[in-house]
Amino acid sequence: MSFAGKAALVTGGSKGIGFAIARSLAQAGASVMICARDESEIAQALPALRDGVHGRVHGLACDVRDEAAVRQLVDHTVTAFDGLDILVNNAGVGLLGPVETFPPEHWRLTLDTNLTGAFYCCHHAIPALKARGGGAIVNIGSRSSVNAYGGGAAYCASKFGLLGLSESLLQWLTPFGIRVS
After folding, report:
1. How buried is residue 137: exposed, middle or buried, by Cβ count under 10 Å (0-12/13-18/19+)?
2. Which domains, from first to last, does the chain contain?
């Protein structure tokens, strides 16, 4: 499948699943913006992502928990690529532990990254997707989106929430030509 002429934003794109998604999109001809919290991870990932690909690849440090930073990331992507067609919300953390000993700051980090960060990205990307006449939002969930397990309260809550966000967006955005998965 060719993604020539398409512009994509992949959060958490410097390693793991996000890196693989960004690389696949770039190899298929898309222009790809990746982000990660740590600028050094972006600097390390970019040469590997650019090697032998057809699309343009850029990166920007961004903590998706920071709405202003997300707005700047989306604006930068739209400016760099003259629009946005694909948003992949992949940034995430997986901190585990029993609720009675789980640090509240770990709860906030998990929910703010995995769920609120995806909301911020969608919130700022949807106008750009609509401006292109449609596109796609891919929210990376997990089995934890539907199957809870002991010790995973924060992670499961964030992924259950992400599934609900995705299903709501799907119903709302389909008439605008925006697919959500």
Report:
1. buried
2. 7-180 (3.40.50.720)
